[in-house]
Write a structure and sequence with these properties.
Strand content: 5-15%
Oligomer: single chain
Largest sheet: 5 strands, mixed
Strand order of the largest sheet: 2-1-5-3-4
Distance between the termini: 44 Å
Bound molecules: FE2/S2 (inorganic) cluster
Order of helices and strands: EEHEEEHHHHH
Length: 175
């Protein structure tokens, strides 16, 4: 049996080996922000963090996540609270800076790509707190198996969101 920790909660998974992690998250565990876009690692809609690194959950067999921590957008507030040394088990946790920035910049249009975008930018900002525009663009285009695609072409707003998230994180951390 595969055991995965999703947004801080342990799940013993009954889906057979080989089942894409995306299907387990959505159909067995009920975590719905990772989306099915292409199913071929070509769009980024299904991205989640696996032990802090972005992966495409549509092509990742569930057993590859055995014993590991999966973070989806639902888990970002608790992740941020943990990183800030605040309680992460309360109902009134503030949003993660990436979520806050996405709202303030009104980034999403249809929204299907946006959860993967937020996961990718979260990974970037944890590694590179003050990224250049080139680093943001590289994260979204050349750092993974394929670029993160937005069929609504909200790329300029995504860049604005990433910049704002970096500023919010810097202010919160006193940098
Ligand atoms: S659905 Fe996974 S990369 Fe497109
Ligand atoms: S907001 Fe529609 S695909 Fe990106």
């Amino acid at each position: 049996m595969t055991t995965i920790i999703v947004n801080g909660r342990k799940h013993n998974v009954s889906s057979p080996s080989g089942t894409p992690l995306l299907y387990v998250l959505r159909n067995e565990i009920g975590v719905m922000t990772p989306k099915f876009g292409c199913g071929l690692a070509q769009c980024g809609a299904c991205s989640v963090l696996l032990d802090g690194s972005e992966i495409r959950s549509c092509i990742t067999p569930v057993e590859a996540a055995d014993g590991k921590e999966v973070t989806t957008v639902e888990g970002l507030p608790a992740r941020w609270a943990d990183q800030q040394g605040r309680a992460s088990d309360t109902a009134d946790m503030p949003l993660h800076p990436v979520q806050e920035a996405w709202i303030e910049e009104q980034v999403p249009q249809c929204g299907i790509c946006q959860f993967g975008m937020m996961i990718k930018i979260t990974e970037l900002l944890e590694l590179t707190p003050n990224p250049t525009d080139a680093q943001i663009k590289a994260a979204l285009t050349t750092s993974g198996p394929s670029p993160h695609l937005c069929r609504c072409a909200s790329y300029a707003a995504i860049l604005d969101g990433a910049r704002r998230a970096a500023r919010i994180m810097a202010e919160s951390s006193g940098r």
